[in-house]
């Protein structure tokens, strides 16, 4: 009697019941205007995580000691953005209802909106910490209000002024930066000030969204809109350990596009970031 | 005084006024469920058409003798399928109103629906000739009624029974083939019977939609869903010359995905097919 | 309560108990001397089979009607060829003991030897039908007796003279062809004579091994040692339907190397061939 | 009435008359001895600049405020180096005659010679600032005096001793470095001393030539002869802002080879560098 | 005492003295106007010929029985077309002077002119048999008289009317085809009539030039200007065996561009074609 | 009379007799469990070293002044790990017997074991300096004791406790790090402490093994198991110059996998590292 073929992200092979966190994929990139492909991120990460160890020499922790369940990928409706976001919201809400931490793998950055809606429904005082190359603060983009380029504006519609803390931002149009000055807290280019934000938000529920293109394209070429001038891998690892001081009630990593990652190094980076993130935020 | 940098498909450098046909791109692939990338087709074809001649030794005709205008690409809304189709419909309607032939470069196959709506508005007795590997006849797909996999069903909603003539079909689920038997005329695998259909439709207004994946993937690897077992390049050229016997009032070629065309051969095929199509159908 | 993430080849989602056939991967390519990579075949095929239908318009059959179980991939020892073959043999023997048909996805061609050993243990009068570009009949290769280039010689060590029937062979050194004339039945270049062989072997237990490089590289570029001059996809489909007249007690397809399949067309071919093979040989 | 399809680099959509600067492509790489492909740079940059913003958060300036005209690409004669340089020289001279700044996109580095000839004809006291990994100071290369490897020696033939200021040089043969010590000012590996040079050249006419391979290949892999050990993107941005203190009367960026830029990150870098350069040097 | 590292094309490891034929590379593509890269052909073929056998099951001959010397690659001057052709001519003349058959691996098609000059100097009644997708008959191209697109016109300048026999031609501008009708013998699309030409030229000295893009791009994608609609691999093999009836005094294969051959299938085709050509023409 | 085609790594064209060091390739990757391809490293490095200079501006030395012989590649038995290691050991022993320095290009890291056996036979007090991302200290891996993941454990079997000095290690399972603490000297992440180790080992015979994946994947993407967080190119160059203070009696660089190096930057890095290593360690 043989077992079915189960594919999970590295070490996330616990049962749902015993798990403290649930990893799942949201393979959606319908609003990506430039170069699509992030829909393949979660599947590719599961496959390539085979080449990675569960043990982190950075944190001296091991994923084998932390119960995580991998719920696979949502089957999302391409071309109907509202429907897809609804699916993500419902799935996330179920995980939260069971008292577990949702850890979503995008997909384009817009998927964050679905997850934030579910988390915000439970935590009305939700704060958002946001690592990204792009401000993502447009009111609308190419006529769409639901877009990868508007997602943090849509999150702001929910949480309101001064609840969003952005780091690493190095791209946006002039109006986004101007609007941002009034409504969100933006640190351009790097993570300076992150520790102070973590201190300030201590004890409050936080959603953490990590657009991997905050990394420099030399480190992370496999993304739709590479923006030179980003942070290094070690700067990001440090920032993730800093973030572990927060009370994270939901998180995601997004914008890995394996189509543009011919050597596989971006997927390796994404896998290691996810490993470190799981080790850092699951208490 | 220098001129602006104008990029057109091979030889399509006539003015709008003098043109009999208008080539334009519809770079949309939001509903593509498997591998996106057809949004890059029209731009890539314009660039690579540089390597092609305007003269066809097959038809002994030259594009320099036929006035065509290249209107560039529509800027379509990603993630809002209805809006994008509306843009395509309006643009096509304008071309038709000016008495010119619309020749659209997709994008995913769903873009055909926008163009057919505009053409059907003028020609209520419209017939449709369809070359494809896939039946594209589903009622809905992953919860969406507007999808690359449903597009011919949506066209049928407009034109009704026995107005759609499919050739080369070699993939679909069982229910599509069954539904098709009642409502459309389907030739599996090849072009046998095409000449008879052309004869039968003589004088009637016809929309011709060519999904390039009707070609075998050895000839045309650069597409989202390659289906082995397709027609050869020469079989397609012959079929295009046969189709020239029809009264074509609108046409498109679609589903080239340059992302999966590393060697450029699929783009070369698409360019040559478009050259031959323009030479064949513009009277 | 969520389910674990199960990945199977297209439609092979039945339970082990109800299944008539068991698909499994043997991701091993340690002896490949030129370009490795076939170890990735089974995983890639599972992922890309998402783009394929369960229904075959060629055979008018549907995989949904045929109970198949996908047992996932063996975890084989790289660098220790004997150990890896032992693992394959033991796994195959278990499937046979349960009265099910083993359907292996290689891997390099040497994996066939492991499966044949298990099948031969039960069926001492085993015959072997072999589609390939290469004779694979060397006595040894670069000093190794267990090699992709010697595998059919090793199978002959088991089954003896005139039990192996090769088709499509178009590469080998002079001595292989000479040795082959004495000991096996070889048809060069194509499938002429296959129907007669099927007739002759009727009722006898047959192992069917399909090296996908029997296909022309235009159809199937994604393989370690491409050999121009091969059969077409339709010729192979026809041959598979012919083979369905045999009493197949074990089979495999091998030598897909996704590393050399940038466009994905070879994986699409391999998936479709496996679908057609399952539909053809499971009674 | 539709407009022709105009393709320009990001935001360079002003009329020729109103423009202060003219961007144009010199797609020539005939003398490239190792890996060709820089001929595709300008076209690829125009297409991919779609993914970039006109606003620079580094300089807090916006290309929308600066009138630039994109004159497209020269159609240069491949295989006849002298003829191609003559075409570049004539085109550049026209721009200078109209009182505008020529901004050329190479092509291989030799194209600089054509532009410098035109600029030097107007400014006999021309100074040259040169960022590069390679000294490019050979007297001849493989028997050719006009070569990417000799271009700065040819420029020296015009401007004479101590008028060329090189930065970032980390490759060359021993004789080049020795010759260079007598005739040009070379800073190896980095930009130390650039501010002093800018100070020294204040008010003098300067041609600025930027071989993008001065960047480390991790940042800029898409070039013909990658040289590890280069400067970072932020170091280059800083240097460009320093260079803005000069009186630049002509400039170019060169040696992007999209053929070796599978992920597109090098093109993204080149686009951003050109944006920053335009914002920095147009007064 | 170790030997130096010698790299030869498959089986061409005889000494110069004992060799009947000399294989050498002419890695030049300076005039290629569209996509360069053929300069890498000869080196790549030597490396990948490792995966091929010396024995041909088509001709039942073995390269081990035929003495061939591989002279490596010429080091040609990029950017100075005349100089490069002079180098090729001189090298070829040396081989002829030693009574051996020159077998050149291009490079772009223009390299043929250098070799033909040397052969014509010895054989003033030289005939030329030419397989190609392109007529290559322009008087000049982009202002250059020495170009891949003019090479057969330049050969005609030497040999005169009705000495050039073209097969497989499917691309050219209208004027080339018209000029060709007066001066050369052109068979479009295929090899029909080749046997008759061979019969007619029996006993006369013939230079045979094979542009591999005569093959369909499905078979041979790795070339600068792919032209769909070409011949199959088996058609080419047959034609090569037909050509063996000629008195070939010089020959070449050209236009393999490994840069566009990601899967390696085109290199495999080129290697096998060269093996079959050597087996066919060396008497 | 022409010379045979000799291919050597940059400048290593001296005769065996006059050479102080012998470069050779060990193209073996049979035990690589994740992504194979290092077998192509040495051949690719020889070809691409064409783009590199023999002169180092870092060390102000020139390879033309240092006699090195390139012995080509061993032809190793794939699939029989013991046999392959035996071949490497014998070849290395011959070089040592002739009083020359062996400089091996891997291949996977396991090839180091073959060379170390030969060197250890002559120098029983051998010390080992090891740069790597991975500890490679497992007792066995997937059932194999001879594996890329166990190679330093096997070396320890020979040399014993505290003779192995590791730098840059950032990956391994928890048990490897624990075992390592007892038996080897491990510096995680960087080269801190290297100078002290060099001082301590002064005068003792040292084998230096450099797994190129110690570099960050941004610098060196072309490797089987990329590990983000590595050292920079300049850090490695510095470390190599530090290592030149040792008495190196054998060395290797390994784990370049050209299959995953589409842009060629990793090969460029490997070539430059080898040039600098030869210049640094040959006395």
Question: Mind explaining what this structure looks like?
Answer:
Chains A, B, C, D, E, F: Keywords: Hydrolase, Metal-binding. Chains A, B, C, D, E, F: This is Agmatinase. Chains A, B, C, D, E, F: Pfam families: Arginase (PF00491). Chains A, B, C, D, E, F: GO terms for molecular function: agmatinase activity. Chains A, B, C, D, E, F: Belongs to the arginase family. Agmatinase subfamily. Six copies of one chain form a homohexamer. Chain A has 283 residues and is an alpha/beta fold. The first copy, chain A, has one domain: 3-Layer(aba) Sandwich (Arginase, Chain A), CATH 3.40.800.10. The first copy, chain A, is 32% helix and 18% strand. Chain A is built from eight helices and ten strands. Chain A has helices spanning 41-48, 81-97, 111-122, 151-159, 174-183, 194-200, 233-243, 265-281, and strands spanning 21-26, 55-56, 61-62, 68-73, 101-106, 127-131, 164-169, 185-188, 205-211, 247-254. An eight-stranded parallel sheet of chain A has the order 4-1-5-10-9-6-7-8, sandwiched between helices. A two-stranded antiparallel ribbon of chain A has the order 2-3. In chain A, strand 6 (127-131), helix 4 (151-159) and strand 7 form a beta-alpha-beta unit. In chain A, helix 3 (111-122) runs parallel beside helix 4 (151-159) and helix 7 runs parallel beside helix 8 (265-281). The longest helix of chain A is centred in the first third of the chain and has 17 residues, at 81-97. The first copy, chain A, is globular. Chain A binds chain D through residues 34-35, 169-174, 177, 188-189, 216-218, 221-222, 224-229, 260-262, and chain D through 50-55, 57-58, 62, 216, 218-219, 233-234, 237, 262-265, 268-269, 272.
């Amino acid at each position: 009697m043989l077992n079915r073929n189960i594919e999970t992200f590295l070490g996330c092979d616990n049962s749902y019941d015993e798990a403290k966190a649930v990893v799942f994929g949201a393979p959606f990139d319908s609003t990506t205007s430039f170069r699509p492909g992030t829909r393949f991120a979660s599947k590719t990460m599961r496959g390539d995580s085979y080449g990675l160890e569960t043990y982190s020499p950075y944190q001296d922790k091991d994923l084998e000691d932390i119960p995580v369940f991998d719920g696979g990928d949502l089957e999302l409706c391409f071309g109907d953005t509202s429907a897809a976001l609804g699916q993500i919201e419902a799935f996330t809400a179920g995980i939260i209802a069971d008292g577990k931490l949702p850890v979503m793998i995008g997909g384009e950055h817009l998927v964050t909106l679905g997850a934030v809606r579910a988390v915000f429904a439970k935590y009305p005082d939700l704060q958002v910490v946001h690592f990204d190359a792009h401000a993502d603060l447009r009111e609308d983009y190419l006529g769409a209000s639901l877009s990868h380029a508007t997602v943090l504006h849509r999150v702001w519609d929910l949480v309101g002024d001064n609840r969003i803390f952005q780091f690493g931002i190095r791209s946006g149009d002039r109006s986004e930066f101007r609007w941002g000055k009034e409504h969100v807290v933006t640190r351009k280019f790097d993570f300076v000030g992150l520790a102070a934000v973590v201190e300030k938000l201590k004890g409050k529920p936080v959603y953490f969204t990590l657009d991997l293109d905050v990394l420099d394209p030399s480190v992370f070429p496999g993304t739709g809109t590479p923006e030179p001038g980003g942070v290094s891998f070690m700067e990001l690892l440090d920032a993730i350990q800093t973030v572990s001081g927060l009370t994270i009630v939901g998180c995601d990593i997004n914008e890995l596009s394996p189509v543009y990652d011919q050597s596989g190094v971006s997927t390796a980076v994404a896998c290691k970031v996810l490993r470190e993130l799981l080790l850092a935020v699951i208490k």
